[in-house]
Amino acid sequence: MDIANEFFSIPSAAECRPQFAFTWRGVQYTWNRLPQGWKHSPTICHGLIQTALEKGGAPEHLQYIDDIIVWGNKAEEVFKKGKRVIQILLKAGFAIKKSKVKGPAQEIQFLGIKWQDGRHHVPMDVVNKIAAMSPPAKKKETQAFLGLVGFWRMHIPGYSQLVRPLYRVTRKKNYFEYGLEQQQAFEHIKQEIARAVALGPVRTGPAVQNVLYTAAGEPGLTWNLWQKTSGETPCRPLGFWGRGYGGSEAHYTPTEKENLADNEGIRATSEVVGNHRKWKAAVWSPTRQVVEATEGEGKSSQFAEVKATQLALEIAE
Q1: How many beta carbons lie within 10 A of that of residue 246, not counting itself?
Q2: pTM, to two decimals
Q3: pLDDT tens per residue across span 27-63
Q4: Per CATH, the architecture of 208-316 is what?
């Protein structure tokens, strides 16, 4: 669903109106509503809509500024959730575009992403577009390719390691030398996009478990987040992340690298499921078995888990 004239539904504070003043035909005017084109308008709008939905007790949903999606196992459930969200928004002073209220449907496009069976997929037209791309012959072409596939990086395990040869030739200080290593990376990432896994959605509730796996290999750090509910097998992936080592990190001991991966993973994926959700974290080492930290909740326990993992690794050594 889509909110109509969302910016103009939000009054601007009296003390802020002078900064929006303008002159037209010799007469000075100002905006008394949130103006379009102002760089902070989307952020303010998103926050106010989010607050209205939270205060109104909206059912589980995803929101990006004025676009909102709800889901369920049955059409009737989706209809009821959508109706409840609309009621909350109308009460908060927003208007809804009837033409932009779609569904219930088993498949829908939301923010350019294909949603099917409760998960978001890489759309087939994107897969076909990437598959049809020719090997880049210039830095700008390489950057364009990386920009396109990079939008879907959360769907691809080990993405940062896969594209490293391509990023290397885009650096300003480097000449563009497209060799065998770059071609292999180019073909590999196209194959991974074609078989990219579906992700999400993020679920809430006491029965939901968040499972984070982290690893520290030779190329860099990786972490991936999964969710499961009681009686559900297997876990559902929420995303895959990773990065290379920076500065002195490459010279860390194996234990320090694994601890860094755990810490980084918990910090990053907290933004996906929230800072007050229950966690179960694990570190993977090729030379050891998985060492699992104690479960916890909130930011304080996240760091406690990192310390517990470090202690467990030291005991294992």
Answers
A1: 9
A2: 0.67
A3: 999 999 989 888 999 999 999 999 999 999 999 888 8
A4: Roll (3.10)
